[in-house]
Amino acid sequence: MKYLSIFLLVCCLFLRTGYTQEEYSFDLSEIEKKALQFGGYLEARPVFSLLDQESYFYLLRFYNSSVSKTASEYNFKALLDLSFEKGIAKARMRLNTDLSYFDPDWSHKTSLYEGYLSLRPSLHFQIDIGKKRLKWGKGYAWNPVAFIDTPKNPYDPDLALEGFTVFSADYVKSFSGKLKTLTVTAVLLPIFEHINDTAGSFNTLNFGGKIYFLLFDTDIDLLFLSGPGVSSRYGIDFSRNIAPNFEIHGEWANITCYSKKILDEEGISYDEEKAGSSYLLGIRFLTKTNTTFFLEYYWNGKGYAQEEIESYYRAIDRAYEVFLETGYENDLHLASSLSDYRTFTPARNYLYLRISQKEPFDILYFTPSITSICNLKDRSFSLAPELLYSPVTDLELRARAMFLLGKQGTEFGEKQNDFRLELRFRYYF
Asked: What CATH class does 56-428 carry?
């Protein structure tokens, strides 16, 4: 109740200040494109959590430490976005630094999110070399066809993410018939010890591509990735506006062979190799009152079946009992090391819903929303109301609560937290 009260207090403050307006002036020189572009943001993000001390993921993290039922963490981020464009050449760099504190430890990491050179010798042809995001896929919360991309956080799909080092070439051609645009993209993906080392086997050069059509007013992509260092995969996506305020989209991807870590209830870990398909179908609908609905169904073919997740929980329970009796920690370390069980969506069957309202009650620069992700198999779900407000230019304030609801043995019922309150203060420059 303490953190719920804080969240409601923040709501009141947002509503109170939302009626104030800022005067803006228009200066043509401000929109003139400059060769050197410099920007980014600074962010502070405190998080307050109500822990579920009976959940299995709580046991994995805090089995040998005394942590109260409440916990706080403090996160700071600096993102630098620098680009230079002259003639046919453009260079871009995005550098990200994260600093976090969770009692009693500080941690920090600096990463080059993007750093690449782009050459456009003609209107139809472009070459990129370096580290960049390709952003394949039409889905909002998930992208099963994003074969060369870091997976999104479905609660923050627009977050800046780290790209991969690639060499890519694009050819674009326009037409006047039913086929209006054709774009062919070829991608080389090298994998070495310090280059794309999470993408596959070392010392290999892999090849991917995308063919984009604007056909019958429908956006269509055909995509693939193959090579000696990765398993072959291919897919298709589409997006179409049925009406100006109603869009449908979908994705389908198949991986010919992937390896999945399994932990059975006896605490024995083994690799399982198999083929699988993932797909997504979604809609985006905008009402006359500026309410936006995102609804997506996602089948995660690489995810764990319900019985596999339940075996994992039983393995944690068994390992914890062994630790209490003998002090032996290795079984808990093993369970904790299997990161595939702790992704945003480790299971197979999900439904995503996001509803946002732009400037309700004529409160300028204010957008409340609510997001829910439901595991359709075990019927557990998360519920995340959010307030977003920009009181002045370049300043963004966000308050978001998250409730994790489900019975014992379900995905969201076994998360580390029962409740989470996150405040974000972001200044753009």
From this structure: mainly beta
